Amino acid sequence: MAAVLIYMMLIGDFFADIAQSPLFGYADVPRQHLILASLVCVFPLSIPRNVTALRYISFLSTGVIVFLTAVVVAKMPAHVLATPTYAAEPAWQAGGRLQTALLIRMAGFWNECFAYTKKGLTEVLQSFAMALFSFNAHTNAVPVAMALDQPRAVRIWQVSFLSVFIEFVIYASIATAGYLSFGASTKQDFIRNYPADDGWMLLVRCVYSVPVIFGVPINLSPAAASIQALAGRLFWPQFRRQASDPQPGSWRSTCRRACVVGAVLLCSASLAICCEAFADVIGLFGALFGTVICLVWPLRIYQRVMKNLHSPVLSTAVSVALTAASLLGMVAFLDQCARVFHFF
Predict the structure, then answer these.
(1) Residue 70 domain-assigned?
(2) Per the domain annotation, does 302 fall within a domain?
(3) What is the model's pLDDT at position 5?
(4) pTM of the entire predicted model
(5) Which of 106, 190, 202, 217 is spaced 20 to 30 Å from 10 by Cα?
């Protein structure tokens, strides 16, 4: 559901920038109208139980991310040299000044990350929470493992390592080039740093809007199934004796799923309209649910099941690491709440 909320916020950002571009010229289109209008397309796509037909969108999504990486990296030198410090330099000196500008930006990055200030600590805690959310958002990990031909432990490890390594290279490139381009003025949705009249970024936004739209039903499908089953066990007596809907294709089941999907989409759209800082949303969800799912529960499982299988030194190290990470996640959640809701 948190992933669906993030997609709804991205829909508002992408389509607002597209509408404001010189190609369309609608500068006064409210962001909330675009988010609500997207429900007309997203709602019917989210009702079917089986969304495997949307698996072909994954290729487009991967291609768009690679294209975005190439555009961001290619535009980075021009944005670095466009800063006031170097914009007045002659063209023949630009090449020599680029290296110096990059070093200055990197020095500023390290100072911001490791400065012993409240703001620096808050940014580190938010980054930790976002990392937990990113890891927890891989809802397709189990289906991929089940779909593997001969899913041995070694094969699962190889596929997992290769996919994570590719993701690390791509996202590290985007993050590095994006920050070097804009420095401390980088927005939470860094694509919004690029002007609306940027032709290449307009193309990125237009192409990226397709997987973003289809990403909502893909991520909503498992959440809707879980909510429907939970609600059925609590409120519908026939669900209490069976693990699933006895008649998945019946009109009653379809109506129940439509109600669940509609409620989730309306809540997500309302939150997306009220909040544009999706990094804060990711930080809150990641610090709360990510800490529980990725750290607290694995710690309990390890202590109950696997602790006796390891040596005392290894079991103690694993327990201490997971405990420390869990405490850090809790601190990150409290810090995010205090910053977002202005408790202190």
Answers:
(1) yes
(2) no
(3) 87
(4) 0.71
(5) 106
